[in-house]
Design goal:
about 180 residues, 7 helices, about 20% strand, tubulin N-terminal-methionine acetyltransferase activity, transferase
Length: about 180
């Protein structure tokens, strides 16, 4: 999504930056992990396919992707490369043409040393705020595989509710925001 191509979102634990071609080699290395592919329901891609995917995500109007950086590493010293601070990614998909106020959200903390520290939670909250303030979203859903317990626990802590697995439009935890997004 070109809308976020020059946006940097700074949180306490994470920094969200647009997914660029400079991030692809590290991202590709992460996705060689069978565990990550299982948890994210992803297929293995070649490096060339990964570059093509990054370009399409930048151009597609229905996908908003940020790379999650570890803020502590990123702020530790000037000149630190984004690639060396990468922790994962967070995405919004705007694919329900019948409901433009609905965004599907997902997060992946791929770097093992960054898991379990709240980076994913902060990244999701920041992305939801971005979705409300910049994209006009009021509802979010997360489609999570039944075996991905860490993600299920995180989204439940964020007050997402379990949807019916038999209804495609409500698969996975779903959250509807109150009228005032600051109350979320």
């Amino acid at each position: 999504m070109r809308l976020n191509q020059n946006i940097l979102l700074l949180g306490k634990k994470v920094v969200l930056v647009p997914y660029t071609s400079e991030h692809v080699p590290r991202y590709h290395e992460w996705m060689k992990s069978e565990e990550l592919r299982r948890l994210t329901a992803s297929e293995p891609l070649t490096l060339e396919q990964e570059y093509a995917m990054q370009r399409s995500w930048r151009e597609d109007a229905d996908k908003c992707t940020f790379i999650v950086l570890d803020a502590e590493k990123w702020q530790a010293q000037s000149g630190t490369s984004e690639e060396s601070c990468m922790a994962g990614d967070v995405n919004l998909f705007l694919t329900d043409v019948g409901d433009p106020s609905l965004g599907e959200i997902e997060v992946m903390i791929a770097e093992p040393s960054c898991r379990g520290q709240g980076l994913g939670t902060e990244a999701v909250l920041m992305m939801m705020l971005y979705g409300v303030t910049r994209l006009g979203l009021t509802k979010f859903e997360a489609k999570i595989g039944q075996g991905n317990e860490p993600s299920i626990r995180m989204f439940r802590k964020l007050h997402f509710e379990q949807g019916s697995p038999s209804e495609p439009s409500t698969q996975g935890p779903r959250r509807v925001l109150p009228q005032d997004p600051r109350m979320a």
